[in-house]
Amino acid sequence: MQVFREKEEVKKAIQKAKSEGRSIGLVPTMGALHEGHLSLVENAIKETDQVIVSIFVNPTQFDNPEDLEKYPRTPDQDLQLLADRFSNIWVFFPEAQELYGNEILSENFDFDGLETVMEGKYRSGHFDGVGTVVKHLFETITPHKAFFGEKDFQQLQIIRKLTHKTGLPVEIVGCPILREDSGLARSSRNERLSSQNREKAAFIYETLKEVQGLFGTESAEYIEKWVKERFEDHPYLKLEYFEIADAQTLKKINRKQSGNQYRAFIAAYAGDIRLIDNIALDN
Ligand code: PAF
Fold first, then answer.
1. Could you tell me if 196 and 91 lie in one domain?
2. Contact, 170 vs 146, CB < 8 A?
3. Among 2, 245, 213, which Cα is nearest to 116's?
4. Closest ligand 1 atom to the C-alpha of 28?
5. In this structure, which residue's CA is closest to atom 3 in ligand 1?
6. pLDDT tens across 32-43, in order?
């Protein structure tokens, strides 16, 4: 395993790999790696010749300094995990200044409204921060393909829009959500849940599965009300939002239209830990 801390160093290695005809796959992460990340790496290994995992806790995507401070950082464990599991992996592990230069600031993006709904409504500036760091990473690594989890489905669609708008020649590959045995979507935040809350948080996925069943026969309005009531009665989880939206535009559904793809999205708190999840709905 090779670890790069400087842009020039990684660029040189990539140039060489490309000159040998090898394709480059990027898996961007903020560290605190878990099985969900490792499954992205496995997908990347299947589809590209040289995989690079970036580990960088991006300050500009946090709307709250306390959240940034609390974000889990486990660099030694992350490197060990990658080295144990994969033989020919590269890791890009920059400091903020190395990636951003002297000014650690977000660019302002227009993602055609994808950024103003759901997560964008509750986390101001979040997607400008994500767009900024992903653009820096794409410009540095120049991958042929980049791999993102569908757990952050809104982020995935925004990154697709980013590459479309900037013309960066990267194919974005969305990878299925990896779940714990209980159904809870894998996330670095799960480590911060008490064992009781971790068990109870499976309710989020159970709800999404029920929604999937209801979507065939019930209206979106009915399902929304049903989900809200279900959470109101819950002693441990607090619903922040539930939405059924068009999978491409992320606009809230008005009326089901055949041929369109829809997804249901949830954000909820278990104590002070914010969890998100989503599911595809058959139409
Ligand atoms: O999904 C994440 O871990 C982050 O938002 C990303 C894409 C690595 C950007 O910092």
1. no
2. yes
3. 245
4. 8
5. 29
6. 999 999 999 999
Number of domains in the chain: 2
Query: Can you state the angle between helices 75-85 and 35-47, rounded to 10 degrees?
Result: 40
Same domain, 204 and 163: no
Choosing from 132, 153, 175, the residue where a domain stops is 175
172 pLDDT more than 90:
yes
In the annotation, is 136 catalytic?
no
Q: Is residue 142 within 8 Å of 25, Cβ to Cβ? A: no
Distance CA 71, CA 64 (A): 11
What is the predicted pLDDT for the residue at 280? 98
How far, in whole angstroms, is CA 197 from its chain's centroid? 22
Residue 12 lies in a domain: yes
Say if residue 140 is in the same domain as residue 165.
yes
Render pLDDT for 175-195 as a digit per residue (tens, 0 to 9): 999 999 999 999 988 988 999
Catalytic site residue from 34, 37, 126, 136: 37
C-alpha 129 to ligand 1 mean position (Å) = 10
On whether both 129 and 197 belong to a single domain, the answer is no
CATH code at 15?
Answer: 3.40.50.620
Question: How many angstroms is it from 175 CA to the middle of ligand 1?
Answer: 14
* pLDDT band for position 76 (cuts 50, 70, 90): very high
Cα Rg, the chain, nearest whole Å: 19
Question: Ligand 1 centroid to 262 CA: how many Å?
Answer: 24
Q: Which residues contact ligand 1 via a Cβ below 6 A?
A: 28-30, 58, 61, 130, 133-134, 152, 155
Ligand 1 atom, smallest distance to 54 CA: 8
Domain extent for 233: 188-278
Residues 127, 253 share a domain: no
The answer to whether the pTM exceeds 0.85 is: yes
How remote is the CA of residue 182 from the centroid of ligand 1, in Å? 24
